[in-house]
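Exercise: predict the structure of this protein bound to adenosine monophosphate.
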Amino acid sequence: MSLLVVGSIAFDSIKTPFGEVREELGGSATYFSVAASFFTNVNLVAVVGEDFPKEHLDAFTGHGINLDGLERSLGKTFRWQGEYGNALDDAKTLKTELNVLESFRPKLPRSYSNIPHIFLANIEPGLQQDVLRQVATPRLTACDTMNFWIEGCRDRLLKTLEKVDMTLINEGEARLLSGERNLVLAAKKILSWGPKTLVIKRGGYGALMFYGQKIFSVPAYPLELVVDPTGAGDSFAGGFMGYLAKQGEVTETTLRQAAVYGSVVASFCVEDFGLRRMWKLTAGDIKDRYTSFYDLTTYEHAV
Ligand code: AMP
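Solution:
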């Protein structure tokens, strides 16, 4: 079943201990939609400026991503500049230029109004709600966010959380949002605000998924080289939601499998700058790494 994503499309300038890139294609909706496209049909809602080249549009459509909901506005595409230290954990944001994102008001094409799975990627929370208002009766809704919005418009963000079934955020965001240092307590608080499932992404430490009274833990794949963590969170979300949309139902089994697929796709994303590794990824690569995760994490009950 198909999936809709609203989020940012960006030109990212990124510095990590392994090098530096400027004006690389990025953005939350970009990473998400490419990751999810390995599992299901993806329909994008986003804005770009006049400076956005056709070759990037072709890259999206080459992955079967529907661009009917992509708006091209007068002005420059959103730009983000970030830097990572030796630990390659949280990005330090050096610069955010909203540009066309500043006046963006998502208007969904009619063909999108019955899409059953909705992902509100990292974008201003009011825009996330604008999208929810325009979809008829979604089966599954989920959102992401980031420090920029937690600090800048917390009340609007809490309104988004009230309305979604699932939330996927990273551990720094979970702490900032909840005011709790301990992640179990942070999860309890965030779940009390609306979502029924919460995934807390922990970079190189994997992810924790809280659902019902249960917790599921998935590791990050033990890679020899992590080049650029940008987009890992969005790629995780794309693998996670893409798999759930493909399966068409949320059960304990599909949720846990989705969390593993999230970690699988994210593990490829970080192997190179921007989306360079993602463009070369194949369904076979994903399948093989899913099997490696199984071998990495299963063990027998002790007797
Ligand atoms: P992550 O998966 O958390 O590493 O997300 C990285 C992406 O988030 C980058 O490609 C950025 O372009 C995008 N991004 C950074 N700041 C913002 C923002 N304020 N709003 C929307 N997207 C952003």
